[in-house]
């Protein structure tokens, strides 16, 4: 017996499988066309099932932020980049305990992190590729100039059990996929060339120059020197991605299905998706609200409580009734996925499948029973 | 062998058990002193362990928002208010399937919700108390005036399996626990009196008049007519609660322990707690940032990515180093709890205990094996 969208309990994240397939295809084709390596960031989906599909379509490996993500993804991938500073005893221990057959890279911006990383590598009987993270304008992490990059690359090169992997950057400040951002992309190219030249002059040419973010990914063929792209959001897309022009509205594959639970206050309807289902993420583009109705994009979630979302009906002729179902395109889909344990996959209105957000949370993915450092272990919670 | 705070893996929510005990004591004493019934909202802690302590200290029952919360709390409490509109088939079915010995109340603002609720009650062989939710100025849910309240109360009274329970309101717009808010509290009293009088005149005097929110809870003894208070946040408190004067900084019991992972960019330090650990909740008071350092409240989390929090050091002499641990007081603690599966309890620097956030998530808390409508069932996941 089929289950239909209309029978699901709300709030729940629902993925349009056809749209997701198109999104996966499109990025894989883009990377192939331009000769860029694709290393998708799994933070968006946190699912080994989707990661496996990304690898099947030619991704060279996966990008992770947390050790939970790396552990879960080690079940389907033997080439992981943990694009996060390797700092803190527990993080180092878990890095070292990743299965031995998995090639593991990390990113660093501080030579002070290297000695402990080297010890962890030695104890875990492995080595790490270490990327120099360069700050290209976002001012979050990363060395601030090519001289510092060279010093760090040398320190990596000179530390046992560590290999210099290349340059990594995250141009999170380049969000607009529109023509007037070409200047920012050109500046990025100039900046990267300074890093690449300095490293080459020092005898440490970067094998890989790796850039993150979905909006920028679609433009990296215009930036000389870039060899690898690490987009995450593109698998689902979201309202911000659409509003900045890095995808179409019809490319938004994940919506939060919600129920109208109150129409008592004039000019609005209240749904059962609030901050604990949508996150309180502002739109990083023209517009306001915390999400919009898929079929009525003029209706936004204008206010939220933890379990209430207020739909502002002032700009719409649509009159939702008590009990109606709505699908909300969230502003930032990565946050929504992190708020749920399970995702529903639909084909049209028919529920076709569901999968756990296996890499959600922080705890170790491997069974505690097996304390060995490197044998293959079963991932916990996948079947939950 | 003891474990200390300094050995924990970050990011992780840590509760100071002494502070939490003080917070629980203080609200219980306040309610007793003023003859108010205390029905704490469990959305903040989502833990049956803490709920049991609230009940031991005299709470008359518990308030829930989600059915997951109600199911988990039915293990420790036989008097539950689901302060949420009873709309949607799954919500009704789960309400009806709560254990038979548990008294269940819901809040409503629309007579259109009553027929289905009545059917669910009949099929579940139970009855529901139904509160009329009144909008007293927040404009989220609730009937807008006493005439509508009377119509709804009559409809409840006239519907089989439903009992009129009283009036429920949530003055979320009254956030300041400071003297100049006395005017708003006086207006609230006047407003409530109109509702109470109208219902009494209609022959349906409310047994209970129940108000929510932690900041307002401390002032409800000044509002005539209120019989019950439903604070949630007070168990942990947070930066917003402290900044509006509804608690002291030293009453903030929950912090997010985080590690400094980068000091590469001048004037800032980066910690491993971003939006996926702290939520992107603005401070609803004077100030900025998304949280502040417990021991250096002048240092706020000024920007965030999903796994990065940027500490703005411009107003501080404190110079954190790579690998340092910091404790962040979040702006809104209810969101933080919802982001984690487990909470660590500490006494000073010693880790004393830990407990699951058992009512986090959306799925049914009872074992699927038992499909009976009302027998006591074991709660899943508590031991995870």
Structural class of chain A, by secondary structure, is alpha/beta
CATH class of the largest domain in chain A: Alpha Beta
Number of domains of chain A: 2
Question: What is the terminal-to-terminal distance of chain A?
Answer: 23 Å
Q: H/E series of chain A, N to C? A: EEHEHEHEHEHEHEHEHEHEEHEEEEHEE
Oligomer status: homodimer
Largest sheet of chain A: 8 strands, parallel
Approximate shape of chain A: globular
How much helical structure, as a percent, in the residues of chain A? 25-40%
Instruction: Give average pLDDT of chain A, whole number.
Output: 92
The DSSP helix count of chain A reads 11
Low-confidence stretches of chain A: 368-384
Give, in spatial order, the strands making up the sheet with the most strands of chain A.
Answer: 3-10-9-8-7-6-5-4
Radius of gyration of chain A, taken over Cα atoms and rounded to an integer in Å? 22 Å
Write the layout of secondary structure elements.
The structure is a homodimer of 384-residue chains.
Chain A: E1 3-4, E2 12-16, H1 17-34, E3 37-38, H2 48-56, E4 62-64, H3 67-73, E5 79-82, H4 89-96, E6 103-108, H5 114-123, E7 128-133, H6 146-157, E8 162-169, H7 182-201, E9 208-212, H8 214-217, E10 228-230, H9 239-243, E11 254-262, E12 268-271, H10 275-278, E13 291-293, E14 296-304, E15 309-312, E16 325-330, H11 333-338, E17 342-347, E18 350-356
Parallel strand pairs in A: 2-17, 3-10, 4-5, 5-6, 6-7, 7-8, 8-9, 9-10
Antiparallel strand pairs in A: 1-18, 2-11, 11-12, 11-16, 12-15, 13-14, 13-16, 14-15, 17-18
Helix pairs in contact in A: 4-5, 6-7
């Amino acid at each position: 017996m089929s289950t239909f969208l209309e029978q699901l309990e709300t709030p729940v994240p629902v993925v349009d499988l056809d749209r997701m397939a198109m999104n996966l295809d499109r990025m894989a084709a883009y990377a192939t066309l331009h000769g860029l390596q694709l290393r998708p960031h799994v933070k968006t989906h946190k699912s080994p099932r989707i990661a496996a599909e990304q690898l099947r379509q030619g991704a060279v490996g996966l990008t992770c932020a947390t050790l939970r993500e790396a552990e879960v993804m080690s079940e389907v991938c033997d080439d992981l980049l943990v694009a996060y500073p390797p700092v803190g005893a527990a993080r180092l221990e878990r890095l070292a305990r990743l299965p031995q057959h998995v090639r593991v890279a990390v990113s660093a911006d501080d030579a002070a992190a290297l000695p402990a990383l080297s010890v962890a590598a030695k104890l875990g009987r492995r080595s790490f590729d270490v990327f120099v993270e360069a700050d290209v304008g976002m001012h979050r992490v990363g060395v601030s100039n090519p001289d510092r990059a060279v010093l760090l690359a040398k320190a990596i090169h000179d530390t046992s059990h560590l290999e210099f992997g290349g340059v990594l950057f995250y141009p999170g400040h380049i969000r607009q996929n529109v023509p007037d951002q070409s200047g920012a992309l050109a500046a990025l190219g100039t900046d990267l060339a300074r890093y690449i030249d300095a490293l080459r002059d020092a005898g440490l040419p970067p094998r890989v120059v790796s850039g993150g973010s979905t909006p920028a990914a679609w433009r990296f063929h215009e930036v000389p020197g870039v060899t690898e792209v690490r987009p995450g959001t593109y698998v689902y897309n979201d309202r911000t991605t659409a509003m900045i022009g890095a995808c179409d509205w019809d490319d938004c594959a994940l919506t939060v299905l919600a129920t109208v639970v109150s129409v008592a206050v004039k000019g609005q309807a209240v749904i059962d998706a609030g901050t604990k289902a949508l996150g309180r993420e502002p739109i990083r583009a023209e517009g306001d609200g915390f999400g919009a109705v898929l079929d009525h994009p003029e209706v936004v979630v204008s206010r939220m409580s933890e379990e209430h979302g207020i739909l502002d009906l002032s700009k719409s002729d649509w009159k939702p009734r008590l009990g109606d179902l709505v699908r909300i395109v969230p502003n930032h889909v990565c946050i929504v996925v992190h708020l749920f344990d399970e995702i529903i996959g639909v084909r049209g209105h028919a529920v076709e499948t569901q999968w756990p957000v296996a890499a959600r949370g922080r705890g170790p993915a491997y069974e505690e029973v097996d304390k060995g450092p490197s044998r293959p272990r079963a991932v916990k919670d996948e079947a939950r």
